[in-house]
Amino acid sequence: FRGTVEIGRSSDGSLFVIGELPFEDYLKGIAEVPRRWHMEALKAQVVAARSYALVRLRRPSDEAGALRYDLCATTACQVYMGMGVEAGPWGDRWVRAVEETAGQVLVYEGNPAETLYFSTSNGRTFGNERVFGGGPLPYLRGIRERDDGSSPLSRWRVTVPFDDLARFLDFADEWPGGRIRRVVFRDGAIRIRGAGKVASLDRDDLRDALNFWARCLEPGAYPTSEPDGYRLPQTVPSIWYRASQRGRALVLEGRGWGHGVGMVQWGASGKAERGLSYGDILAAYYGGLRPRRVKVP
Fold first, then answer.
1. d(CA 57, CA 3)
2. Residues 26, 98 contacting (CB under 8 angstroms)
3. Whose CA, among 4, 108, 153, 200, lies 20 to 30 Å from 231?
4. Could you read off the pLDDT tens digit of each residue along the chain, which spans 297 residues?
């Protein structure tokens, strides 16, 4: 890792580790997209990541009044892997994208725009208020997406045998126990029957239960793999799915991965392959906003 590594003890006795480094060096360690992608897609991702980071710098985290930092290193903020990115395979291309867009961000009303992004769509994106609540932002409007078909998560299928489903939902307190005999999907809800028992879950609750308990109880079997061998990143990658019963199993057929707001990363890759510049890619996803050079920390 570049910079200084600070290790300390928080108020609950656990240790924390914080990396302190220059802002542009931080961007060189972000691992959000494959670094072999088209350079215009990489530049679009860099500008989005830089803008998002500047927004988060104004909202530092505070845990137990003792641990203070600007950004976490996971998907809850932006995935940061330090020298594992810039010194790793194709890392020189990512560093080049950072350096050639140095200081460039998207700006709305004089401030960095909250440039949310996600992996793969279900054919469209959504306004920020529909997913996260709050007031609608004019640069985070829903659009149709036609360029992310190369994503391995563009379409996916998950099969969960009823025996597994009953166990996972029992641990999640969503099923009273016993065998499941029938599953019906109607109006966005999944209705489960078996041995005189009935349970109903909405698509979000089913996804949450399977994502936590399937990987916990059967890590060798979940997440499942696609026919081409690609293993899904989560048991149920998104809430954009249809459910059905096939024999004694629940089958989920869905599209996409992520929250659905802002730039579609695989869509940016597809647009770059079609010849769009990184400025055009960003404008397509963020309401016409284009990169501007500002003074960064």
1. 18
2. no
3. 200
4. 999 999 988 888 999 899 999 999 999 999 999 999 999 999 999 999 999 999 988 765 554 444 478 899 988 889 999 999 999 999 999 999 999 999 999 999 999 999 999 999 999 999 999 999 999 999 999 999 999 999 999 999 999 999 999 999 999 999 998 899 999 998 889 999 998 889 999 999 999 999 999 999 999 999 999 888 899 999 999 999 999 999 999 999 999 999 999 999 999 999 999 999 999 999 999 999 999 999 988
Strand partners, 4: 20
The dihedral through the CA atoms of 63, 29, 97, 39 has a sign that is negative
pTM, to two decimals: 0.92
Alpha helix ranges (H) inside the chain: 23-27, 39-57, 83-86, 91-100, 128-132, 162-171, 203-217, 265-273, 278-285
213 CB-near residues (< 8 Å, 6+ apart): 167, 168, 169, 171, 172
Which residue type is seen at 53?
A
